[in-house]
Amino acid sequence: MINIAKIKSDFPILQQKIYGKDLVYLDSGATTQKPVQVIEKIKQVYSEINSNIHRGVHLLSNKSTEEYENARKTVKEFINAKSTKEVIFTKGTTEAINLVAFSFGELFVNEADEILIAETEHHSNIVPWQMMCKRKKGKLKVIPAKENGEFDIEKFKALLNPKTKLVAVAHVSNSLGIINPIEEIIDEAHKFGAKVLIDGAQAVQHLKVNVQKLNCDFYAFSGHKIYAETGIGVLYGKEDILEKLPPYQGGGDMIKTVSFEKTEYADLPLKFEAGTANYVGAISMSEAIKYINNIGLSEIQKHETDLLNYATEKLSEIDGLKIIGKSKHKTSAISFTLKNIHHYDAGLILDKLGIAVRTGTHCAEPAMKHFGITGTIRASFAMYNTKEDVDKLIAGINKVKIMLS
Amino acid sequence: MTIQEAQNQIIEEFAMFDEWMDKYEYIIELGNNLEEFGEKNKTPSNLIQGCQSRVWLNGEMENGKIIFTADSDAIITKGIIALLVKILSNRTPEEVMNANLFFIEKIGLRENLSPTRANGLVSMIKNMKAYGLAFNSMIK
Fold first, then answer.
1. Which segments within A200-332 are labelled E, that is strand?
2. Strand pairing partners for B48?
3. Verdict on whether the full-model pTM lies above 0.80
4. How many Cα atoms are found within 13 Å in the side-chain-facing hemisphere of A292?
5. B54 interfacial to chain A (CB closer than 8 Å)
6. Averaged over A121-141, what is the pLDDT?
7. What whole-number distance in Å separates Cα of residue B121 and Cα of residue B118?
8. What span, in angstroms and rounded, lies between the C-alpha atoms of A205 and A303?
9. b/e for A30-63, b at 16 or more Cβ within 10 A?
10. Best CA proximity match to A359, nearest among B76, B22, B109
11. Considering only CA atoms, which of B107, A10, A405, B87 is closest in space to residue A2?
12. Taking CA atoms, what residue in B is nearest to A405?
């Protein structure tokens, strides 16, 4: 059994008061809090081994490099990549997607080629493709969502054709928490020779991801959403594809030799890691993954599913509350609206009660448009949340209703 | 009453409330009492779009002074707008242009001032000042 009290006590930020009230943090979809183990690790790196990696001949540089490359191994195992060559450290999910949009687009996308994305994507998985399509004269096509926000596999199949070069969809939608049927999406896309990028920003902290089993071509996620530092993320890519792709940015670690006539690029994965890598971030991510692994993702998932079900049930009892994006396949995020109450007003009042939720469009404007709304209130849970947190949210919403109606 | 004095009056009013709840309740009341904006004015050019709430703002010149009307889909935003209208409406373009708005922070609503996405309040002040600038150049 998972010990939530112990887990909660690992997160210093959750011990504090907000406006004199216990903090109820329900915005982990935006970023997760950090356990003391990760915070201590960062402190230790800066106090004991900090040194630039891959360059120095001295002891500290060697230690730092070793920890950075060990972090790569930890990530490789976490997602079950075939080799560490397939694990590229980036600034985050957004940079990972931009990397693919640039490098893959540069080589494989020609005029009138098509890129498919889902209607419920967040802006980070829309804008890079728009930019790429503009540059390469490709066509960006949107897979319409079902009425309830679920991925529509039939409409997707109808859009696939030999011109489809790449399909980019989220594993879990950030605004609705709905899990997309990515296995099927990947299989169907491959039938047409299209590559598939999965945006895993909202998935890896909740679900066990096995990139080899999924057979996706690219998988992207961020450290800060899995209990690690900000400014670090991962792009997984199949080695044979990454080998072919041109580098995304130039400079620093991504080169083998440079002369003014010709530059020879480094081997994978360094080819895609220009400049000084965020090695502290990578090490913090490794520590966060170890923390997750110690508890066990399946245990975490069980707890979060319990919370999701409990919250869904309790929220459904509130008069005038409407859950947006109802589906059986969800991770622990619930988006909802309140009748005649603006999400922004609700968010401000909840904040004063010490309850942190996200309000607005969640950087997924097309998804909001799909439902004909201007935004939602989103409560997103992580392993450190409890049923008590849900109860406080419910009480908070009732207070909001009294104040605003 | 000058812009400065109007702000001081609001600060004084808010100083009477100890509890955030009372402050918000007062703001909500102000929002509900804000003069009707009129659907016809809800044009795209009057819309200040933010990620959190939408704000409509219109300014018209009457007898050398700018009359502001505004609306929002969020009631707390609307209440704060009511305060802005109270302070900046019925002023000369020059007064609006040069207004130093210090009251929002003083009444403890700093969180409404987030420069990027929060609710367009910062853009709202910017837009009001832009009206001041535009009308000022027209009369010169």
1. 218-222, 233-237, 255-258, 263-265, 321-324
2. B55
3. yes
4. 30
5. yes
6. 97
7. 8
8. 13
9. bebbbbeebbebbeebeeebebebbeeeeeebeb
10. B76
11. A10
12. B28
Q: Are A284 and A228 contacting, i.e. CB atoms less than 8 angstroms apart?
A: yes
Q: Which residue of B has its CA nearest to A368?
A: B51
The closest of B38, B104, B100, B40 to B77, measured between CA atoms, is B104
| A212, containing H or E segment | helix A211-214
- What are the CA-CA distances from residue A319 to residues A123, A322, A339, A347, B57 (Å)? 32, 9, 8, 18, 33
Identify whether the C-beta of residue B119 lies closer than 8 Å to the C-beta of residue B94. Answer: no
Per-residue b or e along A339-363, where b marks 16 or more CB atoms closer than 10 Å to that residue's CB: eebbbbbbbbbbbbbbbbbbbbbbb
pLDDT at B115: 55
**Which residue has tokens 């010490």?**
A354
CA A144 to chain centre: 22
- Return the higher-pLDDT residue of A332 and A307: A307
Name the minimum distance, in Å, from the CA of A357 to any CA of chain B.
13
pLDDT tens, residue by residue, B116-137? 555 567 788 889 999 999 999 9
With H, G, I as helix, E, B as strand and everything else as coil, classify residue A37. Answer: helix
- Burial string for A196-220 (b: 16+ CB within 10 Å, else e) reads bbbbbbbbbbbbebebeebebbbbb
User: Which residues does chain A have within 8 Å of residue B76's beta carbon, measured at their own beta carbons?
Assistant: 344-345, 348
CA B38/CA B60 separation, integer angstroms: 14
A178 alpha carbon, distance to own chain's centre: 13
**Can you tell me the distance from the alpha carbon of A49 to that of A60, in angstroms, rounded to the nearest whole number?**
5
Contact (Cβ atoms closer than 8 angstroms) between residue B52 and residue A344: yes
- The residues of A assigned a catalytic role are 363
Q: What is the pLDDT of residues A62-100, one digit of tens each?
A: 999 999 999 999 999 999 999 999 999 999 999 999 999
As for the ipTM of the complex, it is 0.88
Mean pLDDT for all residues in chain A: 96
Instruction: Give strand ranges (E) for A243-375.
Output: 255-258, 263-265, 321-324, 333-338, 355-356, 358-360
Question: Which residues numbered 327-386 in A keep a CB inside 8 Å of some CB on B?
Answer: 342-345, 347-349, 351-352, 359-361, 363, 374-375
Q: At what angle do helices B75-88 and B20-33 cross, to 10 degrees?
A: 70
pLDDT tens, residue by residue, A237-276: 999 999 999 999 998 878 888 888 888 888 999 999 999 9
